[in-house]
Amino acid sequence: MLQTCLFPAAGYGTRFLPATKSLPKEMLPIITKPLVHYGVEEALEAGMDNMAFVVGRGKRALEDYFDISYELEHQIAGTSKEPLLTDIRKIMGSCTFSFTRQNEMRGLGHAIYTGKTLVRDEAFGVILADDLCINEDGENVLSQMMRIYERYRCSIVAVMEVEREQTKSYGVVSGRFIEDDLLMVDDMVEKPDPSEAPTNLAIIGRYILTPDIFDILEHTKPGKNGEIQITDALKTQAKQGMVLAYKFKGRRFDCGSIDGFMEATNFFYAKEYKK
Ligand code: G1P
Q: In a designed cystine with 167, which of 45, 97, 197, 199 is the match (CB 3.0 to 4.6 A)?
């Protein structure tokens, strides 16, 4: 039903330096597939076919990844290596890719606002590719959120419970449960100190946003760390109308951290490679 998935991908990925000195963090591979590949697969499965990227300097590898590599493809055509490209070719044949640049790093809210030019006047998904999400028992996380969007037609954030001490790494929501796993948001705080966090329900990198978020973002003042925060814009949207927080089914690997990245690597190795 929704066509566009936005991938804010302008960040530096400093935790993975020196690798990310010349490699976009979204291109770090979990075994053989870059993180962004998993994200695009998830969006496609959720029915989206317009992949929109907000990139920054040094992110050319992302554009190249979703393009044909004539020389390489010619070299391996007809060899035993050719099947290794089947997945990426399927993706390239199923969707379009567009890119815009965020010239200054002014926060996730600003990155999403920069993506306005690539998003039609309709609701859209957002995937932060360094949050790798899987659900072995059913629909992927963005698809689960699409079902909720079909019923409520408002912005939705995916949340999970975290240890209290971890609230300072996330946007945190509070509100009232309207279904077992669905919360109507009344407050949101970006990266609160554990002593000030309203709950331990943390936002992860999956959003469905209605397009009025762009007007709100335009008027959202810099917040935590002097950056324009999507969390603050969503709080305004919740006050003006309705925002839902959904406790998703599945598992999320924080591949923006070394620990999470290793967990994801071990998980996919055990699942797909270990005989
Ligand atoms: C961003 C958001 C935060 C959210 C997190 C999910 O933070 O600002 O609200 O909880 O993504 O991964 P970042 O991890 O980019 O600092």
A: 197
